Amino acid sequence: MSIRIYIGNLPQGFNPKEFDKILKSVSDSIKFKSVLDKETKEPRGFGFATTNNEENANLLIQKLNGFEFNGSKLRVELSEKKDSSNKRNSGNLNKNKKKKDFKKIVHSDAPNLEAPDPRWAGELSKLKDLLANQKTPA
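User: That's the sequence. What structure does it adopt?
Assistant: Structure tokens below.
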């Protein structure tokens, strides 16, 4: 059974090969995978290490938690299991369920045609007064 370990607070633009050397100094059986940004393909500042031995996992946590790597103190802890209601599975669970019937309520941001826009109410009243007082030639 493999044990998964969260490694966080990795510095921006760190070299994964350099970090791998540090992990190998603890144990050769530790494998590390950095989490990358989908768009830029740059490391996001954390990753996961896996090992088959609980002793190695505890040793890694003990040695590297708080360890300073390229100016950042690492955060190393056992990875928590994913919740069973993650995004990938939730879509498949609802496939066979019928959609509930409900009424859609549509809200309109369009102003009421009978009432003037309150932002221009003062200017509108001035224009109405000017038009009312304007004399047209007969």
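The two ends are 100 Å apart (CA to CA).
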